[in-house]
Design the sequence.
């Protein structure tokens, strides 16, 4: 079996609150499944690292191999391992990673309380580690901007993420208008797209080209 050429993350992390509850994001992983399917159709060998919902959405032929993640720290540990096992693999990091986690507790919070206060702390920034783990990887990252973000605001956020993480491409969206406000930021500049599928197709083409170049 050919080793994976792309590590693709998709879906939302689930950061535990107690033994029963968790904090998560509104992400189905459908974008990641779309990308995995399109890359596979181009002959690219994809390892899909997805949430439970993502892996349920993915068909049997959408990726050569798959693996489920849970919390942010679990996803981080799995990516660390995979990027050391697969040096230079291209990375498409579309997962919705939780930025906060609750103080750990093994029991279940008692129900029926009039109020409940949780103490949250920041989780590690996985994206900031990818190029440290695998400097030669072609890295595509994603940035979700808050509702009402202007085009210039989106440009600044995407460019800031690109420089901070050494991403080769950043796909930016504005929450609430994802279908209409999409752009790609790369070393050549900032390119808006009227059609989100066209932006995703551009990512597929660039990743496939990067994989082909590495084969030579």
Sequence:
């Amino acid at each position: 079996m050919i080793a994976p050429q792309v590590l693709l993350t998709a879906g939302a992390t689930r950061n535990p609150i107690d033994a029963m509850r968790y904090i998560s994001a509104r992400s189905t992983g459908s974008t990641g499944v779309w990308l995995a399917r399109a890359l596979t159709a181009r002959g690219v060998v994809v390892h899909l690292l997805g949430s439970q919902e993502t892996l349920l959405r993915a068909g049997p032929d959408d990726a050569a191999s798959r693996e489920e993640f849970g919390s942010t720290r679990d996803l981080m540990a799995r990516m660390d391992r995979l990027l050391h096992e697969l040096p230079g693999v291209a990375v498409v990091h579309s997962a919705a990673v939780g930025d906060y986690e609750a103080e750990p507790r093994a029991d279940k919070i008692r129900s029926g309380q009039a109020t409940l206060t949780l103490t949250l702390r920041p989780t590690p920034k996985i994206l900031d580690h990818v190029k440290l783990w695998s400097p030669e990887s072609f890295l595509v990252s994603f940035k979700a901007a808050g509702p009402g973000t202007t085009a210039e605001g989106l440009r600044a956020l995407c460019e800031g993420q690109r420089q901070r993480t050494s991403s080769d491409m950043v796909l930016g969206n504005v929450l609430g208008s994802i279908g209409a406000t999409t752009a790609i930021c790369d070393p050549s500049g900032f390119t808006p797209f009227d059609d989100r599928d066209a932006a995703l197709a551009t990512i597929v083409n660039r990743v496939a080209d990067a994989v082909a170049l590495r084969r030579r």
